[in-house]
């Protein structure tokens, strides 16, 4: 199983970090040791003073595929869950300024909390209109809608599969909307797709 993520997929998030809008999707990976499941608490690592939350819709890949055409892409995922792409922003900024890869800032242990529950694709009336949000201590911090993605689910799957074979069980983090920010000790993070709570974890 592998975890692939797309960066810079929502215009307002690109603007808040003053990044350039990429022509092609920006793709990076997290190792399986990044996963944090069953609402286990997130422990702030020693190497960062600026861990940011990034709430994201996560696709569960259900078939193996390579060079997948966009029109067939919807048959390659069967459920959508919710994840957080925790990012050591201070470390990422350092690496970015040197033109180095982001792995350590994005792929550290526990950097990918994932909902236990995944909602079957068939339960969504419109994949281009899925609302999701992150609350910190009960306050809404990030709010997104899949219709605002620069590259939609099909485009992401088609694009990645030109380079990397997708396999059953792989997870695709599809990018974060605006509102990212630092977490601190004692925060309680709750994540929702529509009004269904899928994530509820403490920061320690
Ligand atoms: Mg992200």
Automatic annotation (TrEMBL):
| Alphabetized SUPFAM superfamilies for the sequence | FAH
Instruction: Report keywords, A-Z.
Output: Hydrolase, Metal-binding
Tell me where in this chain the Fumarylacetoacetase-like C-terminal domain is found.
2-190
**A GO MF term:** hydrolase activity
Any keyword Metal-binding?
yes
At the top level, the lineage of the source is Bacteria
InterPro entries, per the entry: Fumarylacetoacetase-like_C, Fumarylacetoacetase_C_sf
List the protein's name. Answer: Fumarylacetoacetate hydrolase family protein
